[in-house]
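Quick look at the format.
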Amino acid sequence: MTTTYDPSEPKYYDEVDLREELGRVFELCHGCRMCFNYCDSFPTLFNFVDTKDQQHADLSPAEQDAVVDACFGCKICYVKCPYIPPHEWALDFPRLMLRAQAVRTANHQRDLRTRATDQVLARTDVVGSLNQSLSSLVNPIVSRPNTPIRRVMEQVVGISSQRLLPTYSKVRFSRWFKDRLPRFIPKPRAEAAIFPTCFIEYMAPEIGADVTTVFESQDIVCSLPEGVKCCGAPWLHQGNVDEFTRQARSNLERLDEVVRQGKDIIVSQPTCAYVIKRDYPVYVPGEQADRVAQHTFDPSEYLMVQLRKDRSMNLGSVTTDEEVVFHAACHTQAQNVGLKGRDLLKKLGVKVRVVAKCSGIDGTWGYRSENGAASKRMSAALADQIAKTKATTIVGDCHLANTAIDEELGVRVEHPVSLARRLMGLEIQPPLKGK
């Protein structure tokens, strides 16, 4: 048996070895049960074992696969688990689930419709570029769940008809960035390269514009890394390690050039930031991946780092009695850097209440048709918790989670830096066109 989640390990793709490791981990998780209220993987596992008189070895491959399918990769179990490395039991449940998906893909165990869904969700730059150019036609479709055309999409490519999908902007972030008139900064505090990934580039360029505007107001020179693509997360999460590592290597070459120029990398989507910080060094190990990971930051995290470095830095302050709800997205928590979006708003004088509950999206898991009902159940539970706060202003780091909250509550959710930009009285130049 190989207790490994390292894709370079010779037995990583050995299904017999994988099944033994699933049995070992499932026995330990069943004995602990601390994660009973996270994703559906754990209650599914516990119910299977409980009905077999506690005989963990009696789980069939199909039952093991049901546990794998219920995992949406939020990573919170790893954050909370007392048995992660360097503990002798070396549990890493999320990476074991990724290994299981990789074995399925390598052994061609995914059906035709699932592979079609994989392609649609993973080719984010192709799909994003096309949908952005046709945004006036695409947006009415993706923003209206349960329509006939969405049900046809679900049947053909497996994208849930129940979910509100993020809409596309009329202008790319990179186009706005190149068209803007940069603020003249005679004495830069720092230099940052904004890696927009597919979300900011095609769907939410306003977040990138807000980050750029706030950074430049604080004498942080901003630039764009050339030639980068999607971080590759969808390939990884569906188990296509070859495509993921190809994408990661390409991005690392370009991002490392940026770091060697003395710049830090800013990533505004928590899933993408997690992939660059934690997954690139695992799947493309070496000095390059480590160097890029060490210089990659969430925008709020980066501002708080600069505030600690330079006490003369002044964001200003506001006086307000309104309480803002900050949604702590799972992949923000999984980075173990703290809730810096919350801290940034508190630094400005905003009263912040934190709601930490999964949105049920987690990368692309919640958009797959087979996960639609479970995803909606989790989004509804999150929305119910937010609604109880009676807050009218909601912020969150994750654009996908924010879209799910909007779907449930009908309230536009902002990125914390976007709210900070408005509170600081800064204007985006040039203004972004609407969607």
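Next, a different chain entirely:
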Amino acid sequence: MTVTVSMHFVNELFKGLPNSSTSPTRYLERAGISPFLLSAPHGRVTVEQFAELYRGLVNELDDETPGFFSRPLRGGTLKLLCLSMLDAPNLQVALHRYTQFFRILLDDFGYVFTLEGDFARMALVEHAPLLGSRTLIHELMLKLFHGIASWMIARKIPPILMECAYPQPPYSADYLYFYPGTVRFEQPQTAIYIDRDFLDHPIRQTKKHLGAFLKRAPADWFYVSFADRLLTHRVREHLARHLTTSGTVHSVADALHMSPRTLARHLKREGTHFQAVKDEYRRDVAIQALTCSEKPLISIAEALSFEDLACFSRAFKTWTGNSPAAYRKARTAGNAL
């Protein structure tokens, strides 16, 4: 999975945590994240690194929502939640159980599930001020719902609309991959809308599938490709297969059976443009290679279709605020500690 996330998710994860003898630096190093990224402009980590960090905090604190709420959700809570949903006759009944589960467990937070015309709406409700980072909690708890719902019916459920009860964050370009669909900020409630027809789908998963699902959490919830619905995702998938041989706007448009102008128009409608999609893909592949492999910098540059190492270094610094050499050096230094 060559997807990265903003350091926002890492920095905000440490807010609300109880005082501990374990410093944030040690948590980061255990997850393979260099502490220098905490203050790096535009720093990013792989989804796997963030998931490893999240799991480390969960295990250390015995709280599956680490520091989010006034009451910790002890280890095994998510497993019990899923078990309570597995024998539901369809997704609608399962989601009712989902909301009831959190109503029983938490006093300061919950979900409200409603039907509105052709849509089903799951909203977040705060009954008291949240202990952790409010924006991060909203982001992750909505992803939790969406990830579990999609897994339950073994179908990718495309979000139709996401409403966010917070201002548009500087890293909102990530939402095109994490919350594919229309996104509106500064709304009265944080909520996600899905097609109502999905509610009739039967539950496809069983207990024997649950262990693998939980082991991968939360990595599998961050990015799911909707290439059948979003042109941005189709472009990214094409680049993943053909970057070195078919990575120009004209060649991609031709491969997708449209003109460059049509490609540009559709991408603009999704809130992006071709060069941004290409740069985001190359940035993510570069970060993955720098943090998870020993590939020489020149080899990474060539694989990403840069003319030379200098061009790659300039682009990478524009994307992340640091040179590729700095990323690799920091990782090596962190591993040596």
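The chain has a mean pLDDT of 91.

See the schema section for token definitions.
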